[in-house]
Amino acid sequence: MINNRKSVPLSLEARAAIDRQLAAFRQKFGPIYAYKKTGRIVTEENKRLLSEEELDEWNDAIDEYHRRVNSGEII
Q1: pTM value?
Q2: Which one-letter DSSP state was computed for residue 15?
Q3: How far apart are alpha carbons 54 and 38 in whole angstroms?
């Protein structure tokens, strides 16, 4: 398989725009990291359908995500 990826330098303005879009996405959809860890997306509307264990698993994944972001492991 051929890898056709290449890096393109971004201006500060372009990087800032991408960062704003990423923040808006995370604000709207939550940290997708938790979805990858748990296999579910939890919202205010559906969290009542989860067991206590499932909700704990989701919250633990959210906490882990924030720990990893704050440590610089995840950008």
Answers
A1: 0.60
A2: H
A3: 8
Tens digits of residue pLDDT in 11-39: 999 999 999 998 887 766 656 888 889 99
Buried b (16+ CB within 10 A) or exposed e, 50-71: eeeeebebbeebbeebeeeeee
Tell me the residue type at 38. Answer: T
Quick one: tokens of 17? 């725009």
- Spell out the alpha helix ranges (H) of the chain: 12-29, 32-38, 52-70
Beta strands, E only, the chain: none
Eight-state DSSP code of residue 48: G
d(CA 72, CA 69) in angstroms, rounded, equals 5
